[in-house]
Amino acid sequence: MNSIENRLRNRFWKYVQIPSQSKFNGGSKVPSTASQWDMVKTLRDECASLGVVDLEISPYGVLTGKLPANVPDGSAAVIPAVGFCAHVDTVDVDLSPLVRPKLTETYDGKDIVLNQDAHIVMKVEEHPELLPYVGQDIITSDGTSVLGADNKAAIANIMTALETLSADRTIYHGDIYVAFVPDEECGLFGSKNMDYEKFPVDFAYTIDSCEVGEVVYETFNAGSAEVTIYGVSAHPMSAKGVLVNPTLLACDFVNMFDRRETPECTEGKEGYIWCQQIESNQSKAVVHLNIRDHHKDKYEEKKERILRHVETLRSREPRATVECVISDTYGNIADAVTDENHKAIDYIYAAMKELHITPKTIAMRGGTDGSFISTKGILTPNYFTGALNFHSKYEFLPVQSLKKSYDMTMKLIELIYQGA
């Protein structure tokens, strides 16, 4: 393993062992967990030692800073300022918040025993995605947690790049801004609470995709709807003509939607309305819906459809009170692309060409921090971490793939400087 791979592995190993699992709370408190502060403060101290200036942790746990330009002739003003963003939280999928990483050196193509005591084995038969990495060094968890490469592989990548740039003054670059944000996994609440005056970049990148070569600059338009139904409660012995059952009305409402337009029945750029949850009792029911579509017009139509169904429910049962709140969560990165900022995407493909990496362009059925950042006028496409099986106890990271992600970051910085 070469020195860069060692540095990347050691940083990643350290970061995943700092617990920083987020908890969904609707954004009522950001960060949602105290442990994320530990991660942010660790990164602040490390950034300061690497020459990053203007470091600030906001009241929302967002860390921002700048590595000043290094140019031979004082021409930094003409070099685009570029940003790199990563999220510090790991996802809560009802596994342990504590990550105990394991290294399998020179993977032999066989099953990997993650946890002998708990009989947790990653079987090749069930996970053939392991096979392309025979002969490589692979990092996993011990099977009791996710690994946290989503998104600590990106953090290790960015921090190692900063370390390289601060140590080698022969590598020229413009101003490089960093943003480390909390609570991406539960609603992009970190990027939504960023002070963008602290991130004055021409364009930015997130590093939040999976296998080598993945590129994302199309994501869902995303929103949510909360429909609250107030019924009329009554004792069953005298309920006839009086009781208005909000639970049954919630079921009637959900059944107005097309069952073929759900996550389990769609793929690619097909959108959906997803009934995630129904909470109900004798007096009130609350229906939680997620709205997703790559196409802005179809996304807006889905919101209008929900409102029409709400009106239908009201007309069917005028004794009930039905309320609806619809909120936008994030936008499609592609909607922010212009002729002027398209070069941010062009640089990705140019870097991959020079690094002999085959691009795998994906219209992501989800979103990244860049999905929201792009709505603020900062185009923020996304590229790979090198890890696989995000949000799973079978998540794994080939160290050599992490190195390729780091190579992408360094090549982008080089190309941006050369293209100024």
What does this structure look like?
- With 420 residues, this protein is α+β, with helices and mostly antiparallel strands.
- It folds into 2 domains: 4-219 and 332-418, Aminopeptidase (3-Layer(aba) Sandwich), CATH 3.40.630.10; 221-329, Alpha-Beta Plaits.
- It contains 9 helices and 17 strands.
- The chain has helices at 3-16, 35-49, 149-167, 189-192, 246-254, 296-316, 343-355, 369-373, 399-419; strands at residues 53-57, 63-67, 82-87, 102-104, 112-115, 120-122, 138-140, 176-181, 203-209, 214-218, 221-230, 272-280, 284-293, 321-330, 360-363, 382-384, 396-398.
- The strands form 4 sheets. An 8-stranded mixed β-sheet has the order 1-2-8-3-9-16-10-15. It has a 4-stranded antiparallel β-sheet with strand order 12-13-11-14, with helices on one face. A 3-stranded antiparallel β-sheet has the order 4-7-17.
- A hairpin with a 5-residue loop joins strand 1 and strand 2 (63-67).
- The longest helix is centred in the C-terminal third of the chain and has 21 residues, at 296-316.
- The mean pLDDT is 97.
User: In sequence order, what are the helices and strands, one letter per element?
Assistant: HHEEEEEEEHEHEEEHEEHEHEHEEH
CATH class membership of the largest domain: Alpha Beta
Query: Which architecture of the largest domain per CATH?
Result: 3-Layer(aba) Sandwich
Structural class: alpha+beta
Number of helices: 9
Low-confidence stretches: none
Number of domains: 2
Topology-level CATH name of the largest domain: Aminopeptidase
How big is the Rg?
24 Å
Q: How would a crystallographer describe the biggest sheet? A: 8 strands, mixed
Rounded average pLDDT: 97
Shape: globular
So, the CATH homologous superfamily of the largest domain? Answer: Zn peptidases
Q: How far from one another are the termini?
A: 35 Å
Sequence of strands across the biggest β-sheet:
1-2-8-3-9-16-10-15
Number of strands: 17
Q: β content, as a range? A: 15-25%
The percentage helix is 25-40%
